[in-house]
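Example record used in the benchmark description.
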Amino acid sequence: MAITGAAGAAALAGCFGGDDDSDGETVNPDQEVPDHADAYFRTADGEHQITDFQYNPHIWGGFSHIQFALFDEWAQYLIDQDEYYPHFVEDWEFEDGLARLHLRDDYTWGNGDDITAEDLVMQLHLGEALDDDLFEFTDPDDIQAVDETTIEIEFDEGTNRDILRHIVLDRSLDHPPADWGDAYEELQDEGEVNMFDVDIDEPTPSGPVELGDVGEQEAQFDIREDHPLSDNYNWNGYQIGYRSGNEAFHQSFASQELHGIHSLFAGPGAQGQFPNTLEQIQIPGGFGMGIVFNHDHEHYGDREVRQAVAYAIDTEESILTVGADTKLEFPVQSGLTVPATEEWLDVDEYESYDQDLDMVEELLQEAGFERNGDDVWERDGSVLAAELQGPQGWGDWITPLSTIVDQLNQAGFEATLNSVDQGVWSENLTNGDFNVAAYGHTEGGNAAMNYPFFSFSWKFENRDHTGDGFFNYPEDEEITVPDGDGGEISVNPREELNTIANTNDESTIQESVERLARLFNEDLPMFLAQEKYEQSFIDRDGWEFPREEDSQHFQAFWPLYWLPKQDELKATVAAE
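Model output (C-alpha cells):
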C-alpha cells in the first residue's frame, strides 16, 4: 500500500513491506478495461446501519456517504487549487451585488422530471428554515429563477465575493420537489417548517445512481441509464455494507472485501496489512481535534488557566501516537487552519505555546492556584480538574487525548479521559455539561473552512449545538489582549467578522484577520491540537484510475465518487 495526495508518496517511503516500487507507489496490476464489467464498487458505512438509511440530508442519523453518488454537486471544490469546478452549475459570475448561476439543461430527477432553476431556488428558500448562512447576505425575495437554466441572487453591494462563492456553490442537488415540495409549500404558507420532520425512506436522486436492492447487510445503488454521466460508468453501481469500526474496516481491506472508502483513519500498523494495490489518497481536511473550554466554568473562564493548558501539552508527542503522516501540527494557535495560518499570517509574530512547564506554574500561580498535598493545583479548595470528554470510537482523537491527559497530569492538573458515546458527547456539549472537551476545530467536510471568515466564525460564534455559542465565549463584546508588541488591542469578534463579510478590499480583510488571530492566540477560546489529512482509499486491483499527477480531481470530497463523474474511474476485468 502506498500514499498519494498532499503529503506525497514519499511521506510513507520505507514504512511498509510488500512489493511496492522503490519510490513507494502503489502497484498497478495493468488489467484490461472492458466496455462493461458485471461488478459493483464495494464500500461500507461505519456510522449507519443499512436498515437505518434515510435520505433527509438534515438528519445525521442514517444519512450515508452514498449521498455523494445519489445527489450531484452544484460545483465541486478542488482543495489544492482553491477553486470550484463546474458541475451542474456549469458557469457563474459574482459581480458587486449580484450572483448569476448558469445551469445544465440535461439533468433529470430520478422520477424523470427535469431539474430546473426553480428547483434550486426552492432548495435555497428552504435553507431559510435552517438559518442557512446565505441569508446573512440576502433575502428570499432576492433569489430568482430568470429562466429554466439561470438563477440570480442579489446581495448588498460590497459583500465579500469569496464568502459568497463558498456559501452559494458548496451545495448538492439534494432537495427534489418530489420529496420537499410539501415542506416548501408549508414554508410559504406558514412562514416556517420543521425540516427534521421530513421523512425520506426512498430517495429521488439527481446523481448517477438510484436505490436498488436493499438487504439487512448491504444495499445496492444502480447506475441510472437516463443520467447524462451514465456513460462514464462501465460497472453496475455501488454496493454498500456496514463495518462497526476502524478495525473492521482494516480487516476488510486486508482481505480485499472492499474496493474503497471515502474516509478512514488507518495508521501505519493497519496500512502495513493492506494489499500493495490499495492506494491511499491524502486530502487536506481542514478539520481535526481541538480542545474546547467551557468559559462559564470557575477555572476555565480564566485566560491564565487556558494558557496553562496550552503550555502543558506537547502536540507533537500526541500526534505521534496516531502517526505523524496522517496529521498536521499547528505552527501557532491562530484560529485558522494550518494552510490558512501559513498563507495569512507571519507565524513568528504569534505565541507557539511550545510545551513549557515553568510557564504552566507561573500562569497558575498568577491565577491564584497553589499545589496541594497531592501536588495538584487548587484554588480556594477547588482542585483544577480537567475531565476531557471525547467521542467513543474516534481512535485518531481518543488515542492522542490519552497522551494529553498524561501531560496535563504531569503538569499538576487532575486530568481524566471520559470516552463516551457520540450522542452523549454531543448532548453534554449542548447542555454545557463539560469543563473541557474534545471538539472539531472546524466544521468537518466543509470546503470553506480554509477561508478565515468561516474558521473564525466557527470558533467565535459557534452555533453547532445551540442557538448561542455553546462554550459561552463572549462573541459580541470587546476583549482586550496584548498586541504582541508591548501594547494592547481591544477586539470585538463579531465586528471584525462583519468587516470581513462586507468588503472586498484585501488590506481591510487582512487587518481584521490579523486582529482576530491575535485575539485567538492570546485569549484561546479553544486549543488546536491537530489537523488531519483525510485518508481516502481505492484499490487498483479491479479498478483503473490515473495517477494523481495526471489528474486535477483527486483533491476533492471524495475520489471514489468524484473521479467516475469525471470519467476517471473504470472497472477492470478483475472486478467481475
